[in-house]
Amino acid sequence: MLDINAAVEEWLTDHASRGCNRQSMFDAMLKVGFEPERAAGVIDATFKGIQSKDPLPMGIEALRQGEYLYDACPVAADNVIRTFDRDVTVSMRCERPQIIAFDNVLSAEECAEVIERSRPRLKRSVTGVGVYNSIRTSDTAGFLPGEDAFIQRLEQRFASLMNWPVENGEPLQVQRYKVTGEYKPHHDYYSPQQPGAIVRGKDGGQRVATLIVYLNDVPQGGATQFPLLGLSITAKQGGALYFRYMNGQRQLDALTLHAGAPVLAGEKWIVTKWVTERPLESRARR
Question: What Gene Ontology molecular function terms does this protein carry (predicted)?
Fold first, then answer.
């Protein structure tokens, strides 16, 4: 039986807050494997909870006024995007939600260098504010913003690919997933329903979009999945996946619920870039 974890609770609250139809939420939960009685009960409890709460900040109040509004995606609409130092090919686009898959964002040599630089820095991954959690079973390594010429080049390439300022980018973070390692369904934006979300979102504000760059081919498993869409993206060395979840009205797109499927053979290495609505104060102080 599937668990009602924090990410599922967040998805339920988002949909109930903006008045989504109970039947459509029930159908979506059955589609991904929840038992009917469990789905019906948690949906009912969510709607009751919403009715007793005060208006919510950081975009959720806007969602109550209607469905998420898809405005123009910042990423260029071309099939080949010329970044500041490399041409990148688009292999897939989804408009609702805004998801784009790319090929050849990094060369094989660059992927290998990121992995080797990361190995001595790896530590067990956390979620939230320094919390170890079974939701995310991986090791993580971080790089300081612009810490050397190589990192600067990658940050500039990612920024130009996403058409978003370098100053609005969180530090690069590398994750290694061993066999059975996974990241269960979650959203990347700061949820107003979670303790500390507003504080975490002050430096740069809300997250706007994510770029996941795959550093190796995974022999089996390890795909990036969007369970509410039935979409799965296989890890391919040098390729990348972009998805945007905040629009110009600061609404948050709950359809970007995603997961890193368990690795079944080998390892999975990725480098992740999150971008925010404003420049990061911590980055400016460096």
Answer: iron ion binding; L-ascorbic acid binding; procollagen-proline 4-dioxygenase activity
